[in-house]
Amino acid sequence: MDTPDTSTGFDELGLSPAIAKAVQELGYESPTAIQRQCIPHLLEGRDLLGQAQTGTGKTAAFALPLLSLIDPDLRRPQVLVLTPTRELALQVAEAFQGYARNLNSFNVLPIYGGQAYGLQLSQLKRNPQVIVGTPGRVMDHIRRGTLQLDGIRALVLDEADEMLNMGFAEDIDWIFDQAPAERQVALFSATMPPAIRRVAQNRLKDPVEVRIAADSETVDTIEQHHCVVTRFHKMDVLTRILELEPFDGMLIFVRTKNATTELADKLKAHGFAAEPLNGDMNQEMRERTVERLKQGQLDILVATDVAARGLDVERISHVVNYDIPTDPSAYVHRIGRTGRAGRAGRAILLVEPRERGLLRAIERIIRRSVPAMDPPSAAALTESRIDRFTQEILKTLTEQDLDFFYRLLARITQEQEVEMMDVAAALAYLGQRERPLDVKDDPIRPVRRDDRSDDRAGRGQRSDGRGRGRGADRDERRPRQDRERSGARPDDSDLVSYRIEVGHQHGATPREIVGAIANESGLEGRYIGRINIQNDHSVVDLPSGMPRDIFKHLKRVFVCGQALRISLLSEGANRGWAGRSDSDEGGFGSTGPRGKPPAFAKEGKPFKRKPRD
Questions:
Q1: DSSP string, 468-507
Q2: Which CATH number fits domain 10-211: 1.10.10.10, 3.40.50.300, 3.40.50.1470, 3.40.250.10?
Q3: Where are the domains of the chain?
Q4: Where in this chain does the record put each Helicase C-terminal domain (predicted)?
Q5: Lowest-confidence range among 264-278, 318-332, 349-363, 575-589?
């Protein structure tokens, strides 16, 4: 149900006096929408199914009423909260402790993997009234007999969709079976897929359903932009954003654990204070890393979705989606790490040309467009660096004792017979060699919506990466003579045949192959020749003289879940061309087939951009 908004205050919701006093002491003035709608039903003992995003105040929505119902004098677990991650368990436990500040003899215990059993066993002996834990560690304690659920009055599933995504479905069912049949259940989830509906149907009794719109609380407080950029230039664009954006703390999201360490290492090499945050780190290391961000010893965390669950650091002013999430609802979770509790925040999304479908899916789920921004230009970067350089000079002039250096420069100008301006220019050059002030080379260009070569894969592909069907590759299947008459491709003598390890059995179509090669090499689609798709591989004709870095990069490009692993065809299969061996590094050199100059050296340059690591 979607209850209309009212001006109800906490004092009118029916909380117990001790809890209501704690709310007032904590400075809470009025409940959020999720709190206003959930608290009365939970106080009545009703089961509840709540749909709300992170940052909407849902922890207080279930913690405040359940604390009002517990018996603090009864020393046994009465409330069990299951969370998907250790970070969220700690955050929820901390919230319970704060709300129960006026309850005598109250204890809450977070239990999670990665923490020593001995410490948890000693704390369990104190019989805490509230247990907050991850499913795996909760199951371990139940099996050991160190956690008894016979006194449980309420069971909460927080971020249930994430727990199911992480494979905890069977664990949750097992824990439900160990709890008393008569207990109150509250299930909170950001999304409502069929799996969540099944859990609600099987485990909740006549539940009240509360829904909070995805963009009603968190998204509106965050300034959002997206930047369309090719994969080669993502790192360049990111470092420029970091130089030009005034940020306090930043969270950068990537898809994989390996990517967190790789990107963090690259950022550190560029001089940024960055560290990874992923599931392979032990709990002590994760907590220490987050604490360093809170204390200002770190400025940037590079994280995966799971690792960032429950992360609430006030310093985070910016969230950058370096890799766009494949699940649109995850976007709201990610940017919810900034703009919390009404604070301002900024979110930047890097979108590869073929990922525009995912961007549109995100815009649908948040019910608003994400405005486009151009990648920071070389001119803007130059101006920013000059400004910082100027400020450093002025600061040094006012704060440092420079008498020795005045005398040194006077000596140099006299002995070497040079002007003071010449010496100053030389010193400025020496001081900026590592990061030049004048950024002259600017390979990054904005990718426009009508850029056909960059968006070839995006047109005709769904957001899941599969083609639209037989008609989707009509342009690539049309007769070669038609394309030749239009002047769309070079002469056959300038083409070289390559083998790629993607074929019919992988679901490959000409459109996907053309799109991948065009996007990842900077090669305009009109320069790509015949494509012959076999069962387990394909043959594609490309201009001769492909640059080495592009050839190496294409080996690692994926189409339909398969790496291209591009290689030159053998001599006999290459349409009469005297092919080179693998030792020739993919057909690079001063001449192309039949002794002609390589196509990339001609006017027009098919390969326009070079990939950068």
A1: --GGGGHHHHS-HHHHHHTT-S--GGGEEEEEES--GGGT
A2: 3.40.50.300
A3: 10-211, 219-377, 379-431, 470-601
A4: 236-382
A5: 575-589
Chain position carrying tokens 């829904």: 211
Nearest to 37 by CA among 184, 188, 183: 188
Q: Is the pLDDT of residue 613 over 70?
A: no
Task: Report which of 226, 221, 204, 206 is spatially closest to residue 32, judged by C-alpha positions.
Answer: 221
Count CB atoms within 10 A of the CB of residue 334. Answer: 23
Q: How far lies 509's CA from each of 61, 281, 323, 561, in Å?
A: 50, 40, 25, 13
- What is the distance of C-alpha 204 from the center of its chain? 33
Percentages (nearest 5) of helix, strand, coil residues in the chain:
45, 15, 45
Q: How confident is the model at residue 488 (pLDDT cuts 50, 70, 90)?
A: very low
Phi, psi at 238, each rounded to 5°? -60, -45
Domains 219-377 and 470-601 share a fold: no
Q: Which residue has the tokens 């749909």?
A: 51
The single residue listed with the structure tokens 């459109």 is 511
The H or E element spanning position 446 is none
DSSP 48: E
Angle, to 10 degrees, between the axis of helix 17-25 and the axis of helix 58-69?
A: 150
Higher pLDDT, 474 or 37: 37
CATH annotation of 219-377: 3.40.50.300
As a whole number of angstroms, the distance between CA 3 and CA 209 comes to 10
pTM over 0.90: no
Say how far apart CA 157 and CA 311 lie, in whole Å: 18
Determine the number of helices (DSSP H) and then strands (DSSP E) in the chain: 21, 19
Q: Tens digits of per-residue pLDDT, 349-390?
A: 999 888 888 888 888 878 788 999 888 877 777 777 777 778
Instruction: Give the pLDDT confidence score for residue 348 in this predicted structure.
Output: 94
- Residue 232 is classified by DSSP as G
Write out the E strands in 282-327. Answer: 300-303, 316-321
User: Within its chain, how far is the Cα of 242 from the centroid?
Assistant: 16
Q: Which of 209-218, 292-301, 302-311, 402-411 has the lowest mean pLDDT?
A: 209-218
Give how far Cα 243 sits from Cα of 186, 301, 322, 430, 503, Å.
Answer: 45, 16, 16, 21, 43
pLDDT at 410 over 50: yes
Backbone angles phi, psi at 325, to 5 degrees: -70, 140
DSSP string, 565-612: --EEPPGGGSTT--PPPGGGTTT-SS--GGGPPPGGGSTT-SB-----
Cα dihedral across residues 150, 152, 158, 161: positive or negative? positive
Q: Is the dihedral of CA 368, 374, 375, 379 positive or negative?
A: negative
* pLDDT tens-digit readout, 316-343: 889 999 999 877 777 887 888 886 655 6
d(CA 613, CA 524): 21
**Residue 469, amino acid:** G
| Residue-level pLDDT at 598 | 39
Rounded Cα distance between 146 and 119, Å, is: 12
Separation between Cα atoms, residue 171 and residue 176, nearest integer Å: 9
Architecture of domain 470-601: 2-Layer Sandwich (3.30)
Which secondary structure element, helix H or strand E, spans residue 97, and what is its range? helix 86-99
